[in-house]
Amino acid sequence: MSNIPRTIVVGGGLAGLSTAHTVLERGGSVLLLDKKPSLGGNSVKASSGINGAGTEAQRALQVEDTAEMFYKDTASSAGPDLARPELITALTANSASAIAWLTDTFNVDLSVVSRLGGHTVSRTHRDKSGAPGWAITSALMKKLTALADEPDPRVEIAKSARVVRLLEESAVVVGVEYEVGGSRVEARGNVVLATGGYAADSSPDGLLAQHRPDLLALATTNGDHATGDGLRLALALAAPAAVCDLTQVQVHPTGFVDPAHPDAKTKFLAAEALRGAGGLLLDAHGARFVREVERRDVVTEAMQTVEGAGRGPVRLVLGERAVEEVKKHCDFYVSKNLMKRYSNAAAFAEDTGIPLDNILSTFASYGQDGDRFGTGTFRLLFLSLSHDILHSYTILDSSRCMLTTFLAVSTTKSYTYTEALCVAIITPVVHYTMGGLTIDPSARVTHTRDGKLVPIPGLWAAGEVIGGVHGRNRLAGSSLLEAVVFGRIAGTGAVGAP
């Protein structure tokens, strides 16, 4: 056994798992605690991917990207008043190495790269299975669990173990007290909080009620574990941790409305990849109302305006080519009765009552001159395969600095929209909490002393429990990245600290 102090990781999602593996890589030992009977947290449900700038996968696809470009996109999304340069730099500068760590150390396939809302280039990586959160998190989970089962004396995992307080001595965090199997146990070591956010904390006196009561009526995509435990633990210290941006809660524009349970308070997320593949958002009249690959906050505001004006429900519509790009997503959603297949636009119109002429008009104008919403990077995905394809040619898309192949289609004949469609009713949902514990770029939790933020000795944090990284709006693909980057930073710091 190493004589390096044990690191106690609270939370078994991707941030906690990344921390634990980093501790082991640095020669330390780890105790991983999770209050649920299984590991994974919300990370296993992440469906869009993980961002990285300057990666091998991007180079293979001729995508020119840099950490500086990623920084600019993230800072723009965060907003000038809430962007924190040192944290954004830590996130973006370490993104390529985070992707390499996942692919090289855990053999995770991250070869598919997409451009999602708010990004100026394609940088969101996922695997070919279409379930990136599970692919990434399960790989780390399986490896750590295998070590614990050997057993490896460096690794201990305790599930259904709820941390009730942080142990302090002379203003230094020295361990935790936790409940497991009806008993209370004290464990000593440096502590990393990786407990997630508070997007499911909808209790009358919860964090959402305190800071965003206007969101309590919305459903959430989060599991019932996302109740802000880490914040409460750190706020209960003798010198409470500082927090920031607790009013900044991301409402994701697309949560599935289950026809069998339309009022359910927990909803499946309709992955941003569906819109990234070319999915359209249509109001109750069959009209588009926003550029689908805009930033999440922009799309959400547009959807809420439409719903407030009585033009709901909003539907997400994918044509054949879009479905092919995210086929496994769509197959899964159809199996859950969250998405419905139609043989063509006429069947869609008949079932929903939307005038067919409106639908055809929307499809016909998509990507054409005068289309005020544009197509982002997914031009002509709704053109039927039966159309007269004149030729395929390649142009340089300067907005992405990469080569993109489009199809030139005859405009001398009217389009016949005979292709099959996948359609879902969607609504905005509480998805992610940008606020949380204040940290420095070394992932050390801070508190206020003499008017300044200073680190709390013995305490680090990673993942959604931290605040300040995303400002007003988190870019798609940056939650998994935040978990890995700051988990690795926290793990390194916890091992190296006395």
From TrEMBL:
Top-rank taxon: Eukaryota
Keyword Cytoplasm on entry: no
Keyword entries, A-Z: Flavoprotein, Oxidoreductase
One Gene Ontology term of the molecular function aspect: oxidoreductase activity
Domain FAD-dependent oxidoreductase 2 FAD-binding: residue ranges: 8-480
Pfam family membership, one: FAD_binding_2
InterPro entries referenced in this protein's UniProt entry, alphabetically: FAD-dep_OxRdtase_2_FAD-bd, FAD-oxidoreductase_2, FAD/NAD-bd_sf, Succ_DH/fumarate_Rdtase_cat_sf
PANTHER family noted in UniProt: FUMARATE REDUCTASE
Protein name: Fumarate reductase
Species lineage: Eukaryota, Fungi, Dikarya, Basidiomycota, Agaricomycotina
